[in-house]
């Protein structure tokens, strides 16, 4: 390799490290943009930074600097000095956008999420949940003590599930079941997508009372009040009887293996003959392959999510073997794993009673 090629490769390596080191700053730039309503104020046509600053109650020069940083991140475009418009990606920071991620950005840049990450090294050394040590309680109890934060979390989860809610009904034959219980179903967005696409199926959204807070509005918006019921409870104690399909999306990764086995065991206890448990979560490969399409497109986010589970709640992302193990311990057999290509990196994990 020529010296110039070596230097270029070395520079690329340095650029990667620098870009990653600035990652938390990029996240806080998104947070500031959402809090200042930058994308809403820009609207559909180019505007000058000074005009946006006035509407946001901010100073013109710092606003220009913020807008230029957002342009550098690909969220805005600067057409002429101090004149900006919104890119398609940036439009997702507008709460009026049908696929908005504003609550998602607010939640995942929230100090309650970020602060525990400062102690990642400690969690790696000990396996302990950093959040519990920092805040003196576990993550979900903290949410229960802070209603506004809990509402933001519910909204973030709803936004995060919207892509899956659109893709899942096309990827799985729900029509062969009569009733679906969405375990930990939150505001009902995922199950509403299923029921909209399968009018012969009824449903149950099962979650804590706190998790179900926005679910009545979701059912009303989709006209599903007569086909879907809401049941409050604790999946560590039991899950409702009466369904032949139990659906869980992004639930097991919040919990340790023992806790995941408890949740799955309660589903197994009420599963009728011919019933199925459908788990929707990422499935990590046995070995990280940065040349694999899924890993490249995911950009390593699933592995960061795994660390987020470590520091904030004590859960983990899992490989197929990990899912097979927890299912086996719960009296279940994992029968298939199918990538949900329209909502990567998620997969459909099917399990039946042994």
UniProtKB/TrEMBL annotation:
GO function term, MF aspect, one: methyltransferase activity
Domain spans labelled O-methyltransferase C-terminal: 117-332
PANTHER family, per database record: O-METHYLTRANSFERASE CICE (PTHR43712:SF2), PUTATIVE (AFU_ORTHOLOGUE AFUA_4G14580)-RELATED (PTHR43712)
SUPFAM superfamilies: S-adenosyl-L-methionine-dependent methyltransferases, Winged helix' DNA-binding domain
CDD domains referenced in this protein's UniProt entry, alphabetically: AdoMet_MTases (cd02440)
Top-level taxon: Bacteria
Protein name per its UniProtKB record: Methyltransferase
Keyword field: Methyltransferase, S-adenosyl-L-methionine, Transferase
Cited Pfam families: Dimerisation (PF08100), Methyltransf_2 (PF00891)
Positions of the O-methyltransferase dimerisation domain: 19-93
One BP term from GO: methylation
InterPro entries found in the cross-reference section: COMT-like (IPR016461), COMT_C (IPR001077), COMT_dimerisation (IPR012967), SAM-dependent_MTases_sf (IPR029063), WH-like_DNA-bd_sf (IPR036388), WH_DNA-bd_sf (IPR036390)
